[in-house]
Amino acid sequence: MRHLNTLLLHPDSEVRATLRGYLEDVEFLRVLGEAVTGFEALELLEHVPYGVFFVGMELAEGVSGLELAQMLAGRKHKPALVFIANDESQAFSAFELGATDYLLWPTTPERFKQTLQRLRQFQAHYKEIPPPSWTEDEDETADEHTLQLPLGEEEEDRFLKALSQAWEFSNISRPVEIEKLPINMDGRTILIPYTQIIFVEAYEDYSYVHTASQKYLTSYRLKTLEERLRQYRFFRVHRKFLVNLEMVTEIASLPGSNFMLRTQGKTRIELPISRRRITELKKILGL
């Protein structure tokens, strides 16, 4: 029988132990690991093809179960998500993000059987990422044969012309980048205009994108966004912060040769500027 690799993601060791007990004799599920943070779960997912996550709503290190579900939303081979919750307040949001089940904890063996039934239904259409497979006929060392057919002079001219047109088209046909940042949220993709982004804050291997009204947890690394947004007047003022220079209203000098900048908006935001970056920033601003 094909198993679904299962991860137990919850900060409470007693909850994880109880889940292990419930799953011990379930033939189609195989527990392969435990974690307490969303970042640990994502790291494990890079190495293990998990088919099921049992996920606590509140996790360690600031990323909730729902935020983890948002990060997983764009994956082609997304594991089934069974949320473990203390109340029903977030059930609607969980199912909006594609939850397979939403368990109130502590649960009963009878209720847990319903979860297993739903996971069996999920298993019926779930496909793991297929491992690479090779046959002798496909081996790179196998002999290759090229069939050569002579072209007449007129056919050769047409072929060369078509090849030239294809080459020119491939060089001028570039994808147009819209000046908006796509962010997955609640099962939707939100497009945030670059002009609305005040600053970006590094968080582990992810980042928070801050606008005037909200902040969004994204799967982008700060370095990736720095490269993408540099041409739109974003500047890395600190190892943790990337700021939209169009939003900056003031640069303040602090004791100890330190600097800080402030941004516009109803809530004025102050961000530190590292010493080694202040010289470059002054050149950009013409100071």
From TrEMBL:
Instruction: Report the residue ranges that make up the HTH LytTR-type domain in this protein.
Output: 181-287
Q: Which Pfam families does this entry report, sorted A to Z?
A: LytTR (PF04397), Response_reg (PF00072)
Q: InterPro entries, from UniProt?
A: CheY-like_superfamily, LytR-like, LytTR_DNA-bd_dom, Sig_transdc_resp-reg_receiver
In alphabetical order, the GO MF annotations are: DNA binding; phosphorelay response regulator activity
The family database entries (PROSITE patterns) matched by this protein are listed as: HTH_LYTTR, RESPONSE_REGULATORY
Origin superkingdom: Bacteria
Positions of the Response regulatory domain: 5-120
Q: What is this protein called?
A: Two component transcriptional regulator, LytTR family
Q: Which organism is it from?
A: Desulfovibrio ferrophilus
Identify the taxonomic lineage of the organism of origin. Answer: Bacteria, Pseudomonadati, Thermodesulfobacteriota, Desulfovibrionia, Desulfovibrionales
